[in-house]
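Sat 14:20. Reprocessing the chain from the morning session after the first attempt stalled halfway. Input below, unchanged.
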Amino acid sequence: MRWIGLAVIAAVVLDPSHAGAAGDFPLASCKGWTGTVVERDGIDTARATMRGVITKADLQEYCERDPGGETKQYGGKLTKGQCVEKYLRTTGRATMTAEANCRSGTLSYRYDDRQGGKARFPLGPDADTSCASGMPPMVEQFKLLCPASAKRLKVE
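Finished this time. Tokens:
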């Protein structure tokens, strides 16, 4: 019976449709939280997509790091638990999607109903890659969706 359970787990883990469905969904803010990938499809194609959600664990990491100084540990008024609950109420149902055309080197992503950003790779020599530009997370999204193209285009 134990072997059957192990075989089922191996089949799920090795199934390519589940490949990369877990992990961080980089968002276009170095100070904000990161989402969790729940689905990736069409990797290295003209229609690569990734979908993510905000989880309690994502918000716990954010509140522990506390880049906005909201928790008592960093001079704010909230405990870490209150910080997590605050953001669970306001963004706990947020979803994000990223779409890439790996052949043309383009990427766009949405956070809920808002357009989050667009980019074409490789970036030009004068491209703003600062955290304020939102570019570092978009680079990471492209690398997740188009690993072969990112390597070919020298996206770092």
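The beta strands are 24-25, 35-41, 48-53, 95-101, 106-111, 114-120.
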